[in-house]
Amino acid sequence: MPQPAPIGVFDSGYGGLTVLRELVNRLPQYDYLYLGDNARSPYGTRSFETVYQYTLECVKWFFEKGCSLVILACNTASAKALRTIQQNDLPKIAPDKKVLGVIRPTTEAIGNYSQTNAVGILATSGTVASQSYPIEIAKFFPEVEVYQEACPIWVPLIENNEINNHGSAFFIRKNLHSLFQKGKNIDTVLLACTHYPIMQDQIREYLPVDVKLLSQGAIVAESLADYLQRHPEIEALCSKTNKREFYTTDATEDFDNHATLFFWEPVRSNHVDLENSGQ
Length: 279
Ligand code: DGL
Fold this sequence. Notes:
By secondary structure, the chain is α/β, with parallel strands linked by helices. Helix content is about 45%, strand content about 15%.
């Protein structure tokens, strides 16, 4: 019988911390184990196969740590790896464990925000290319038109703390202009990359005032609360001692310096070398 363990929260780097922040706010009683694969980020421009391999390695690491529930707090990993992991890998390696993503909970809710039935998606190239958002939104809100814009420069700008200069303003304006050229009646824009909320003030500056700007964290947290209520057998395996632990595949000092920006409180991380951790 597995012992209760923290809820695993995964991202390619720092972005998932914006989701973890909301999870901790909404469900503070649980323990959380965060892993950022910073050594191999960004994932957004990598191939399906690579993102799948990297994500699977990280998921296995969470399982070794005893986690029964892992959240892929990364759209790119949710878009490119989640389905294969759920359908092909879990039945073989861990039939009793669950891996959830951030796209499904967001697409279940997004149509409720739009009056014009036109939604804009800002995401990494990988998430856009996967077509996950248009496909998933069509299942829940077939009347909603989805317009996507890949913003490949945004994650590097954020990870390098370059969001408050003319260079980032240029790229924000460029990508928003291109999005609204595609969908002139968009009234709701989703930040479909967990890094982007860090830049939301800057993005807001260049959006028409009547357009809603949505981040995923709170939506994902609400959906997880609901999931845990509907799955008491999984909930029972989530430990509740108010602990948060952070791991990175890269240098801990860098991680700790950057992480506060995303998590809004000081972070002390540990290093993990996935290649030597039995993967
Ligand atoms: N934060 C990740 C996401 O939500 C992407 C960052 C990356 O490109 O690695 O898609």
